[in-house]
Design a protein that fits this description.
By secondary structure, this protein is of the alpha+beta class. The protein has one helix at about 40-50, and strands at about 1-10, 10-15, 20-25, 25-30, 55, 60-65.
């Protein structure tokens, strides 16, 4: 399983011209899944992403996670 995560001001997913998912600020995540990846792998990855501190605090340090800033995934 490979993941690319990026801070985002807004993101959406369109399928056949229809928006099927959208967020305001938060994490935009692209996930590559391969044969042999398990549900446990997916859960472990989701837990890591939610805890990943990639947003700035009041001191300008990247010290907050997506939940702490009220962002979406």
């Amino acid at each position: 399983m490979k993941v690319l995560v990026q801070r985002s001001l807004a993101a959406k997913v369109e399928v056949d011209g229809e928006i099927v998912g959208a967020i305001d600020h938060g994490q935009m995540v692209l996930v590559g899944i391969e044969k042999g990846d398990t549900e446990a792998d997916t859960q472990r990855l989701a837990d890591k992403l939610l805890k990943y501190r990639m947003f700035s605090d009041d001191d300008g340090k990247m010290n907050l996670n997506v939940q702490q800033v009220g962002g979406g995934v």
